[in-house]
Amino acid sequence: MKNAPSPASPAATHDRGDAGYDKGLKPRHIQMIAIGGSIGTGLFLGAGGRLAEGGPGLVIAYGICGVFAFLMVRALGELAIRRPSSGAFVSYAREFTGEKGAYVAGWMFFLDWAVTVMADITAVAVYMHYWTAFQGIPQWIIALVALALVFILNMLSVKMFGEAEFWFAAIKVATILGFMAIAIWAIAAGHTVADHAPGFHNISEHGGLFPEGLLPALALILGVVFAFGGTEMVGVAAGEAKEAERVLPKAINSMIVRIFVFYVGAVALMTLVLPYTAYSKSESPFVTFFEGIGVAHAGDVIQVVVLTAALSSLNAGLYATGRTLRSLAVAGSGPRFAVRMNRHHVPYGAIIITSALGLIGVLLNAVLGKEAFDVVMNLAGIGIAGTWASILVTHLVFLKRVDEGKETRPAYRMPGAPVTNYLALAFFAVVVASNLTSVQGRWTLALFVPVVAMMVGGWYYVRGRVDGTLMDGVLDEAGDGPEAGDGARGTDHAPEPENGATD
Asked: CA 163, 165, 168, 171: dihedral to nearest 10 degrees?
């Protein structure tokens, strides 16, 4: 009997690290967060530079990366349906791989979004310099103002965040659909765009799919992964959602359609309406197109929209890092200050820490100017690949427990698992290794080395205070586990909140 599989446990219901949050996100918020999280500066600003450097083959890169991003989010969705948590994959890693796994998952995600915050404030500053009236203002000042505005927004209730993100995402979606409709019309009608006739000849007569060669295109894959960063946001939002079990599958299942329509479709149309040489890393490809068709003030209107997209991504970045960093702090593997919650049920300590790190992005804008975006984008891409890999590994451990009879899979599942887990992990390893094909990529890897060293050193620093019993009551077996309102600490060993914190 010793080796007989134990009865499958009921679905986990509660992580004490979730205590204190407000279930204020409505189904429409979750739907738009799922959309908006996967559409940001990577498309609205980054696609122009990547087209200019790698050519039309970027469409293929978006398609391949999109498939693996979808597999990752399905794995996360399966775990989130089983137990919605604001700690998301950090909480799931804690449950299935222990505190060391939670530490790696959490800090990789924190790196991803803390650096993305830097990229987003850079994008806002670049966008604002489109107008002559703002060109006299130093880029770093605009970046600082953007960070301050979104910081204030995140200090309000989660309902305010959800509402802001809903409208940010709606504007982004409407813009992309509008671009696609007009681009299709231009192609069908033969309407000239910036003195270029649209059509397949813009690909065939300018070097084909890979005019700069295959290696430069491979080097751009990390930037494409950065573009899909945020797809995992829906898992974080599930912890503060009403009816997550009903809403989440619909939001995730529609993601593959959105990826191929909004990313692959949009970039494919970009390659048809203009040759790749018409695009630039200093200007949104949407602005390039709308100015090219000769519509008065179209560039100004689209510039406002892409500015909204950057603010949306920045807003989501502070939201996600705040929840993740607090989940780490409650367990003892993050700063104690990050445990603090305000009266709006917002983890203000963690958001303050992330915003303070965003000031590094302000400094980069002062020193590097427009080059700052590329530097931080690549570093964030490694963080994203690491975060997604940790989700897939956690899901593999969950599947192992299912095979042992210790867990029961929900009806909503990752397709093809566990084979697709290993395929996706191999792909993300290739993505990170692709940095070796370019000088900029090698610098990115060099910058990542001290980050890894700090993470390793950080673990040895905090491991003595980590609360390994945080998940003791999660399964709520036989009614013995904690109820949903139990405090976040749960044991005498967990870090106490600072004065003024609320559970």
From this structure: -80
Helix ranges, 55-154 (H): 58-82, 88-128, 139-154
CA separation for the pair 252, 241 (Å, rounded): 14
Look at residue 12 and tell me if it is in a domain.
Answer: no
pLDDT, tens only, 16-73: 555 555 455 555 556 666 566 567 667 777 788 889 888 998 898 888 888 898 899 8
How many other C-beta atoms lie within 10 A of the C-beta of residue 159? 16
What domain count does the chain have?
1
For the purposes of burial, counting CB atoms within 10 Å of the CB of 23, is it exposed (0-12), middle (13-18) or buried (19 or more)?
A: middle
- CA 215, 216, 222: angle at the middle one, nearest 5? 100
Name the nearest CA neighbour of 203 among 56, 61, 60: 56
386, 108 Cβ separation under 8 angstroms? yes
- Identify the domain containing residue 294 by its residue range: 21-466
The answer to whether the bond into 450 is cis (omega within 30° of 0) is no
Q: What are residue 207's phi and psi, to 5 degrees?
A: 95, 5
> Judging by beta carbons within 10 Å of its beta carbon (0-12, 13-18, 19+), is residue 304 exposed, middle or buried?
middle
**CB contact at 8 A, 243 and 170:** no
Q: How far is the C-alpha of 348 from the C-alpha of 33, rounded, in Å? A: 21
Q: Does the residue 5 lie in any domain?
A: no
Quote the CA–CA distance of 226 and 228 in Å, as a whole number.
Answer: 5
Three-class SS state of 201: helix
Helix pair 439-462, 371-403: axis angle to 10 deg: 50
The answer as to whether 96 is a domain residue is yes
CA 91 to CA 471: how far, in whole Å?
A: 9
Count, residues in the chain? 503
Burial of 36: CB neighbours in 10 Å, binned 0-12, 13-18, 19+:
buried
Question: pLDDT band at residue 478, thresholds of 50, 70 and 90?
Answer: very low
Return the CATH number at 160.
1.20.1740.10
pLDDT, tens digit (0-9, with 9 covering 90-100), for 126-174:
788 888 888 889 888 888 898 888 888 788 766 777 777 778 778 888 8
What is the Cα Rg of the chain in Å?
22
Q: Look at residue 25 and give its three-state secondary structure.
A: strand
Farthest-apart Cα atoms in the chain, separation: 78
In a domain, 14, yes or no: no
